[in-house]
Amino acid sequence: MHDDLIRTLQTRFSQHMERHAGLAWDAVLARLNAAPASLTALQHMEDTGGEPDVIGHAGETGAVTFCDCSAESPAGRRSLCFDDAALAARKANKPAGSAAAMADAMGIALLTEAHYRQLQELGAFDQKTSSWIATPASVRKLGGALFCDRRYGQVFVYHNGAESYYAARGFRGLLRV
Questions:
Q1: Which helix (H) or strand (E) holds 50?
Q2: Are 52 and 175 in contact (CB under 8 A)?
Q3: Is the whole-model pTM more than 0.70?
């Protein structure tokens, strides 16, 4: 059922060995076979333009971490406010949904700032777009949310009202298998 996805993931894995140095595809495939439900989440990531790839490996447990590695924030996950509370707070011109709810429905997590910075060490991502990231409760309580991008060779973290949404802002996801 997921044969095409497995082939796509294997090809991407082989083309970007710098993202997961020292890790063999057989180890990744074994993790996927042991957790078949993860393939549904990875398929959602792929279908929305995320181009998931392995960016981490926990040697002691064998867990692998997949992340959206598309050059820009995934096209199928843009124009979303931060979470459902922000969506409900909008009085007019509501977006189609929220990043947090979509990530949850896909079975993935929003990147934290640390994850986002880790991803940026592997390449230059979000040079024309931006991505919502997991936001501390203290910021969210005040109505804000955080997002990141890469400009001028630097990674920037910004804040915005959680109810805002833009055609060039989406979110990246993370999945541990």
A1: none
A2: yes
A3: yes
